[in-house]
Amino acid sequence: MLNKILGVALVAAVSFSSSIAADKINGAGASFPAPLYYDWAFNYKKDTKNRVNYQSIGSGGGIKQITKRVVNFGASDKPLNSKKLAKAKLLQFPAVIGSIVVAFNVNGIADETLKLSNDVVADIFAGKITKWNDSKIAANNSGVNLPNEKIVVVHRSDGSGTTYNFTYYLSGSSANWKNNFGTGKAVDWAVGIGGKGNEGVANLVKQTPYSIGYIENAYKEKNHLSAAVLKTANGKWVVANEDNFKAAAKYASWTKKDHFYAMLALQPGDTSYPIVAATFILLPTEKPAMNKKVIEFYNYAFKNGDASAKKLGYIPLPEATKKMIREYWTTNIK
User: Fold this and answer.
1) Using an 8 Å Cβ cutoff, are 198 and 215 in contact?
2) Cβ within 8 Å of residue 3, ≥6 positions away
3) Residues 161/197, Cβ–Cβ less than 8 Å
4) Phi, psi (deg, nearest 5) at residue 172
5) DSSP 8-state class, residue 60
6) Pseudo-torsion of CA 98, 100, 106, 109, nearest 10°?
7) Model pTM above 0.90
8) How far apart are CA 206 and CA 226, in angstroms?
C-alpha cells in the first residue's frame, strides 16, 4: 500500500507546475514528513475527491516556494521565528512529530546494537573519527566486531530542515561542532558524500558499505536500515523507538503567540530520544480562501491520520496541541 501511495505522489510531483490550479492544493518542502503527507493525501482524495499534490524538495526549497507564492503551502522542519514569519507574511503550525536516526551500513552489526555517544556522532560527522574500529567507538561497544574500515559519511546535499535539526543536536553535543560548523539547513561538511532529500541519504547508506548518515525514522523503516543506539541529554542509552520518541515529544512547549516555534532535540528525561523534531506548515497571510482549503486537509489528517502516522514511525500531535492549532486557524484565517 505504501508503495502505491508513494507512486501516486511521485506522479503528482512530476506533473507539478508553478501555475497553481484552483481545483487542487499544491504544497512543497520537507522530505522529513513526505511519506506521511503522501499517505494523508491518498486517503483524503479517496474520502473527499479533493487532491493534494506534495513535492518533497527539502525544507529550504519549501520556504523559498511559499515565500515566492509558487505553492499553496510550504513545509519545513526548521521552524521560522516570529520576525521571519512577519517579514515573509506567513503563518506557521506543526503537523506531526518525527525523529532523526543515525543509520549505518556495516555488515555484521545489527540494528540497535551499535552504541554511539552523542559526542562521538559529532566527531564522525566532523571528520575527527574516520575508522569504524576507532578507540572512541570501541569503548562503548565491547563484543561488537568493529571492522578496520574507513567510515563513509553521508549527509544532505540540499537545504534541509532535517540537517537543521541534526546539526542543532550536534551543536548541543559537541563544542567542536558548535564552534566549527554550527547549526543550519546547510553547513560546510568536512567529509562525506551528499544525497538529495531523506530519500537520497537513505539510498546512499543502503548502497554504500561502511557508511553512516542521518535520516527521518520513516526512511530507516522503509529501507530496512540499522540505526545506532544514542544517549539522552541525561546520559542514558536509548534506542530509536516510539516510546522514546514520545518521551522527548512530551516536553514540547507550544504557544500560539510565537506560531508554535519550538526545538525538540536534547530534551530532559532518562528515556527521551535525543533527536526528535516537529515539522511545520507555512501559509501566506493574504490567501484566506486557499488557506481554508489547506487547513481542511490538515484538519482531516488530524482527525483521521494518527494511525497512518504511527504506522510510518511518526508521533501524532497530542490532542491538546491540535486544539490549540485549530484555535490558531480560527484567529488567523478569516
Assistant:
1) yes
2) none
3) no
4) -80, -10
5) H
6) -60
7) no
8) 9
What are 107's three cell numbers?
A: 555488515
- Closest alpha carbon to 70 in 16, 15, 18: 18
Per-residue cell: 306 = 494518527
User: Which domains occur in the chain, in start order?
Assistant: 2-98+252-263+277-332 (3.40.190.10), 100-248 (3.40.190.10)
Beta bridge partners of 76: 280
Residue with cell 482531516: 300
Place of cell 482549503: 293
Query: For every one of its 334 residues, what pLDDT tens digit does the chain have, with 9 covering 90 and above?
Result: 444 444 444 334 433 333 344 459 999 999 999 999 999 999 999 999 999 999 999 999 999 999 999 999 999 999 999 999 999 999 999 999 999 999 999 999 999 999 999 999 999 999 999 999 999 999 999 999 999 999 999 999 999 999 999 999 999 999 999 999 999 999 999 999 999 999 999 999 999 999 999 999 999 999 999 999 999 999 999 999 999 999 999 998 899 999 999 999 999 999 999 999 999 999 999 999 999 999 999 999 999 999 999 999 999 999 999 999 999 999 999 8
What the block records as the C-alpha cell of 37 is 503527507
> Residues for the chain: how many in total?
334
Cα gap 216→225, rounded to integer Å: 11
Picking from 275, 85, 50, the residue whose alpha carbon sits closest to that of residue 74 is 85
